[in-house]
Amino acid sequence: MRIANMDFPDPLLAAQKKGSLVVFAGAGVSMPSPSNFPNFDILAYQVAGGVLQKDEGEPIDRFLGRLVDRGVKVHERVQKILSNPDSAPNSLHSNLLRLFETPAKIQLVTTNFDLHFTGAARSLFGAVGVETFSAPALPLGDSSIGLVYLHGSIDKPAERLVLTDADFGRAYLTDGWARRFLQRLFAKYVVMFIGYSHNDPVMNYLARGLPPESGSPRRFALILEGDNDRWRYLGITPITYPLTEGENPHSAVGVSLTRWVELCRAGALEQEQEIKSIAERPVPIDLEELDYIESVLRDASTTRFFTRYAKSTDWLRWVEGKGFLKRIFEFQPLAEEIDIALACWFAETFVCEHPKENYII
């Protein structure tokens, strides 16, 4: 389904609706204003403060490890930088949390250390608590997970932050607590990555927990156009967006997320009015509207809204062309509510009211 500037695959939208979606949020989520935090690379340079220069091609976690060997208090410096009181949650933090119906249904994992998801949750839900975990004390991964700070958070002792190659080694190899959590999580849930780049060092570790894909895609990433091959190599389906002009060149992500949340949160009356506004007109050219109607016809309740207002033969031809009427002409009992609604729509709106028309279905 096309939402604003991005094509969101049906398995991802279905997982969100069923409660089987987990959002993975990276540094890119905390970069837009008013958060204004750096990505992992820039954070490392700020921590280094000129003490060492990063070698060409050197992984960031290894560079931070060398800084520790030189006596730099890497973990404490990161904790201080990301505790900036002038930084605040942005709309991405809020909208990612709003993809979940209630605080109890939140399933969001972040590799960020800042507490902006906690702050956004407090603003959205008030005193209603969101179950929160911070490394290394993680949930099992195959049950409801709440809000998880996978690599630690700034409100815990600084030494728990997963930053250096030694930290990642303990988390994913020797102690393995992050690996075990991810393996269970990836085996059960559909996952959406947001805020990561194709060369993000964190992704190299996360990818170790990804089991082989089988059947429908279960792992997706919101990425900039042009990075598709790298993500497919990791077994992740890319959902691309274009750069835009202005202060935030990645604003297309925020626009699409806002629209997705609006669609998820719309009540029955609002949904009916939106469907009515489209279905009472001729079949639109707008791809986003057509994709929206396709998603409408995959749910029994919204299908009934559509059949209530779609009266033109153009809509009949479009619905047939998309294959939604196929099952009602297979000469077998209809079991699905959607098929029954469409069969009644075809019979009552077109066959009964326009009996002289020739319908070639």
Structure description:
By secondary structure, the chain is of the alpha/beta class. It has 2 domains: 2-261; 268-352, no CATH class. 44% of the residues lie in helices and 10% in strands. It contains 16 helices and 9 strands. The strands form 2 sheets. The chain has a 7-stranded parallel beta sheet with strand order 5-6-4-3-7-8-9. Strands 1-2 form a two-stranded antiparallel sheet. Strand 7, helix 9 (201-206) and strand 8 form a beta-alpha-beta unit. The model has no long low-confidence stretch (mean pLDDT 87).
Summarize, please:
44% of the residues lie in helices and 10% in strands. The protein has 361 residues and is of the alpha/beta class.
Low-confidence stretches: none
Secondary structure: helix percent = 40-55%
By secondary-structure content and strand pairing, the structural class works out as: alpha/beta
Distance between the termini: 25 Å
Number of helices: 16
Q: Name the overall outline.
A: elongated
Number of domains: 2
Beta-strand fraction estimate = 5-15%
Biggest sheet character: 7 strands, parallel
Q: Which strand order spans the largest sheet, edge to edge or round the barrel?
A: 5-6-4-3-7-8-9
Q: Would you spell out the secondary-structure blueprint of this structure?
A:
Elements: E1 2-3, E2 6-7, H1 10-18, E3 21-25, H2 40-48, H3 60-69, H4 74-81, H5 91-98, E4 107-110, H6 116-125, E5 132-134, E6 146-149, H7 165-174, H8 177-188, E7 190-194, H9 201-206, E8 219-224, H10 228-233, E9 237-241, H11 251-265, H12 268-279, H13 287-296, H14 300-309, H15 313-321, H16 337-352
Parallel strand pairs: 3-4, 3-7, 4-6, 5-6, 7-8, 8-9
Antiparallel strand pairs: 1-2
